[in-house]
Specification:
This protein has 206 residues and is an all-alpha fold. Helix content is 68%, strand content 0%. The chain has helices spanning 17-29, 32-40, 47-63, 72-78, 84-97, 102-106, 109-118, 121-137, 139-155, 161-168, 177-187, 193-205. Helix 7 runs antiparallel to helix 8, helix 8 (121-137) packs antiparallel against helix 9 and helix 8 (121-137) packs parallel to helix 10 (161-168). The chain starts with 16 loop residues before the first helix and ends with a helix.
């Protein structure tokens, strides 16, 4: 039986729970054929099925990212979607596989940045995670991407500072640690007590 029959829209449901259940099932059983069918239907003519498949792929990625890494080109294409939800779900998927497909994502870094600049907070947050993981994968990637990541950390809204710091930490090394610390130290007075504690925890790990 086609796995599409288990999608929320096919079951007359408007919530995401069935899609999440299907994603977890496909990850648990490592159903490569089923996952391929979901990936192929990211481009279905029915937008409800598209949305369902987006959600299923995200859930698979959260549980077994290695099972969706082959579809990195699909997620990159989806960043150009006119539907905001598709963009941020694609960026989440990219953030889940960025350490597995750094070259492919690095080669499309301009597309990532463009989506972040136009996108929602979710798109921006996961774009930072994506680029940080790619930067951590190779020195050449780090040299290219870290200045951008640092600029985002310096200019983002105060409530985003702890999350950005936590995301970028994986790309920090001996060469850029001082600059990273400097930005965080200068921004710490803008933060609440709980936010400051999160930043202090990051600083201790540098």
């Amino acid at each position: 039986m086609s796995v599409l029959a288990k999608l929320a829209s096919r079951q007359g449901r408007s919530d995401e729970e069935l899609n999440k259940e299907l994603g977890r099932e496909l990850a648990r059983t490592r159903d490569v054929a089923g996952i391929r069918e979901i990936a192929e239907n990211l481009w279905h003519k029915d937008t409800k099925i598209q949305s369902d498949c987006d959600a299923v792929m995200e859930e698979i990625g959260r549980n077994a990212p290695e099972l969706i890494e082959a579809y990195v080109s699909d997620f990159l294409k989806l960043l150009s979607s006119k539907r905001n939800r598709r963009v941020w779900q694609a960026m989440i998927c990219l953030s889940l596989i960025a350490d597995r497909k750094p070259r492919e994502i690095f080669e499309n870094r301009a597309m990532i940045v463009q989506a972040m600049e136009k996108g929602s907070v979710i798109t921006q947050d996961n774009g930072i995670k994506t680029l940080a993981k790619v930067a951590a994968a190779a020195d050449a990637y780090r040299q290219e991407l870290f200045p951008y990541l640092l600029a985002q950390l310096e200019s983002c809204r105060p409530q985003s500072v702890p999350q950005y710091a936590e995301s970028i930490l994986c790309a920090v090394n001996a060469e850029n640690a001082a600059a990273f610390k400097d930005v965080l130290t200068r921004r710490v007075d803008e933060l609440s007590g709980a936010q400051q504690r999160r930043v202090e925890k990051v600083l201790k790990q540098v």
